Amino acid sequence: MDWMVTPGADRALSDVLPSTLAALGVAGFTDTLGIPRCRAAAVLLVDGLGWSLLHEHAADAPFLAALATREPLLAGFPTTTATSITSLGTGLAAGAHGIVGYTFAEPSGGLLHPLAWATHGTARDARGKRRSLLDAWPPETAQPEPTMLQRAADAGVQVRSVAPAEFGGTGLTRAALRGGDFRGVHALGDLGAEVLAALAEPGPALCYAYHGHLDLVGHGHGPGSLPWRIQLAQVDTLVSSIAQRLPGGSQLLVVADHGMVTVDPADTVDADTDPALSAGVRLLGGDARARHVYSEPGARDDVLHAWRGVLGERGAVVTGEQAVDEGWFGPVVADSVRPRIGDVLAVLRDTAVIRSAVEPGESSLRGHHGSLTAAEQFVPLLVAQG
Description:
Elements: H1 16-23, E1 40-46, H2 51-56, H3 62-67, E2 73-74, H4 81-90, H5 94-97, E3 104-105, E4 111-113, E5 118-120, H6 139-142, H7 148-154, E6 158-164, H8 171-176, E7 181-185, H9 188-199, E8 205-211, H10 213-221, H11 226-244, E9 250-255, E10 261-262, E11 269-270, E12 281-287, E13 290-295, H12 300-311, E14 315-319, H13 320-325, E15 344-348, E16 353-354, H14 360-363, E17 367-368, H15 374-377, E18 378-379, E19 382-385
């Protein structure tokens, strides 16, 4: 379908850290993105800063917009934070690292919510209660591939992660970003200061940093809303403040995990109230714009037909096998990862499939992501040099 941007092999978010390590002179890595050679580098991920949103609102972020001279990156599929951060952190697509969505099937028969590393509500548990899976399914088991931060540290690079303090030791941090020294921060000021401190090391030095408030405001008010634009201006000031203080021989790379689109809550499809979307469904995972549908034994074709009938031209509904064959999850899908992918995949063009009973908070949001539209797939790669 012409509205879908299927992930490809060129200029992916997963290429950022391998290219950065090559730019630092670390053996065994190839720079596919044209990152300038440097002594120290920081990669700042701004959650939700889509390529099209940055260009549409360049007046609110003049410093960021001035850096947007390179071709955008593809975030990968699904365009959701847990998946994208793991792709960035491992240098792999979702089919290889296994964090295949906002929620997805886990070995005990439920859904994993990787941001909390806990079970998520299911079709049979409308209360949506969560149970930690840190012991039952450790992140290092679910995602056993070495991270880029581990590989960098093993190669003698001074590695630092800078993120909200509450992210230290979480399941997603352990799965996607284990390795190096974690520094917990609380606001823009100490985030910027920690990044600059990392870049002042003699090198080679690598810093990963995360800022999530733009995504938070976008979910609640919608991307492009006045609250979102004011938050974007704050991100612009943060990046400018860091860039103006970059030590010699260092550079700052700004990327994002996905873009975002506005969906009117009144114009959504509710899987918890439409019987056609629950018949034959064992589990329903993923984002509101990219659903993993796990069918009861023998019911896949009926589920596929029912979901296509309800969604029509508002999305694309395919089998899990088709999505894998077409490379949605990358060129390789590990045997251990295949059961995590839905029997049916539903990606949306102009709506969202909400769950008003199981996901009341998510269902009320105005800003969404997860699908294969250009607005969600394309993210910037901005480079400032010291």
